[in-house]
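Shape matters. As here.
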Amino acid sequence: MLIALNLLYLIPGVVGGTETYARSLINALARQDSDNEYSVFLSKEAADLDVTPAPNFRRVVCPVVAMKRAARYSWEQGVLPLQLLRENPALVHSLGYVIPLAARGPQVVSVHDVNYLGHTGRRTAIGRRAFRFFVERTVKRADKVITISEFSRGEIIRHMDVPGDKVQVIHLAGREVENGSAAPIPPSEIQRNIGRPYIMAFSSLSAHKNIGRLVTAFRKISASVPHALVLVGHMPEKNAARSEIESTGDDRIIFTGHLPDAEVESLMQNASLFAFPSLYEGFGMPVVDAQHAGVPVACSSAGALPEVAGEGAVVFDPLSVDDMASALQRCLLDMDLRLTLIANGYENAKRFSWDKTARETLDVYSAITS
């Protein structure tokens, strides 16, 4: 049968975890399924994305710029249903929250979380209202809603008043690695320049990533540990978090900016600790990456993070700088705890794989079309 995958939302290098989800799921579907045909619908920005890993995958590039959300919504709701009518797929799976509401036939949607309800992100007020409008109608119209954690499932059911049996959890995984293990990566120039052990964390433009409190927590313990704090990714926008970072004057707080994947992987593998202080996560793929790399994890108790981290992390209250500081210090100085976290993390990471994600997604397709 023909399956249409709607990736019109995907802006490479911008949409974060939902890009990793789309690319990893497509690669895993190609490994698991040689019987069905797939048409992958993309915006102009994603035209060169590798979404045809096998002969049964075909790209359809639409003349729309996803960054211009109004134009993308107009195409997705007005033109895509006509394209799908010509394609005549057995089902449509939209991987980024919103389906073409007028399209005929069975539809599946992936709704990763309802973060937009509590955290504004970078959308304007009008943009948030439009997104919420489409997501809420999508959840009502879709035949099945896939989400990525029990936490997100509960949030969707609670906020959108949908039957529990309509929403199915299919966990994600971490970064794809060949042969099931991450090969050691030599230290990068950035690591050589750091010149000391370090805590690694991901910075972000989004306030809910809670980087300001992490910086404050690190400063509380910096006199008792030799480590640096390495923040990878975009600097927070002009808010309290950025002001906190810029006001420190501490050369042990290192902001790398955006880095290529290979350098991020190298930094992760060689970190003394991975910290994830987010106020809200629907899953938390970096936690699994760190565990797979044999790095102790200290993470927030918010959202789906305890569900995903299992016994392989020390969790802390993300609103309490003192609790966060205590967790960081314990994970750096308690050698027995570190060994336990590494061992438990390895075991916990085995629960997740993209092949498992693909198999469970194919089961949804079969159930919808049977």
Notes: Residues 2-173+353-369 form a domain with the Rossmann fold fold (CATH 3.40.50.2000). The chain has 13 helices and 13 strands. The mean pLDDT is 91. The first helix runs from residue 17 to 32.
